[in-house]
Amino acid sequence: MDNFELLSEYYTFLKEKKGEGKKVVAFMSHDNIPEELIDAAGFVPLRLIFAGNDELMDASHDFLSPSTCAFAQSCIGVFSVKPDPYRFLELIDYFIVSNHCVSDICASEVIAKYFNLQRLNFYVSYTKTGNSLKYFKLELLNLKKQLEEITGTKIDNQDLMDSIKKYNIFKKKLLEISNLTLNGSQKLKIFHKAMLYGPAILPELDNIILEQSQTQISGESKDILLTGCSIFINDYLNDLIEEGGGNVVFFDTWVGFNYYYQIIDEKVLNASKDSIDLLTHRFEKNIYGDHSVPNFLERKVSHIENFSINYEKKTGKKIGVINHIIKFCDHMSIMSSHLKNQLKEKGIYVLNLERDYSRANRGQLSTRIEAFLEMM
What we know:
Layout lengths: L2 H17 L4 E5 L6 H6 L3 E5 L5 H6 L10 H12 L12 E4 L4 H13 L3 E4 L8 H22 L5 H23 L4 H14 L4 H11 L9 E7 L8 H7 L2 E7 L4 H4 L5 H6 L3 H11 L10 H20 L4 E7 L3 H4 L2 H10 L4 E6 L6 H14 L1
Parallel strand pairs: 1-2, 1-3, 3-4, 5-6, 5-7, 7-8
Helix pairs in contact: 1-8, 4-5, 6-13, 7-9, 7-13, 10-17, 14-16
């Protein structure tokens, strides 16, 4: 399935949901938005996981400076230009303004204001102290209240608990997908579709796991762990990696590990009676997301080092790291040199790859990736 077909089918999926009377709540993709609350309210959560191009980035400059994160530019651009594959954006009813980063806040406010979408607010602490957990719980309750005011009905604790369990199963399936011996492009297509559809495609994921559990990939590729910024739908970066002889075996990003590792332990899940407390607990345990200071860098280095050691023991192959940095993404760029230096000290090859979505950069990126893979 190519991206155009995926987006076309997703439009049909959302149209059907709208026909059932459901509302669509969109948000810029990051790892702390409580999809379960949206689902339990009877709405459809829609993550913006769409990469851009020159046209979309340029279209955003009427609203924000060109020095804004290229992903945020593209999110604005896709609403402004409205390319045909993205016609499902017209079905959005509400937009969540959150604070994953400054660009997230600015772009979300622009989208809600200038494209006539009702705004919902949900703000997240960067720390995991006792007070920040109390704050996060208050934000959950506030979002719950906003959703209830729209529907005119209370979100039942059991309905939210059922949704949390459903998404827990969903993330476990994505973890299984990640562990399959598929090439990176296959995994990425599955992740992209899963992040759009959510648990609605659980039967499809079960079939993939059953059919692909014995799949083998070529042992000649240079194996890569991709960290930093995600590769979103309609981005060509993974194609360049595979064309250069590489294969992403692990996506350590929002579209990948940062999402599906947030699985609530079954004992905690079964023992808890309060669904809001469960979501707060999950936020507390989300220690690998970049909303986790002051120890984000140390955890990231340790996490990548452990994966590298275990991967070499399992396969006999060393792994290289591509740290993908979307231009003007402060979260990733500010610690990129420190991440590279610390991993190099541990004998891990690292390429810091900073770029925007411009087509003109494709040749230069290809050359840098090929040189890195050759060095490995």
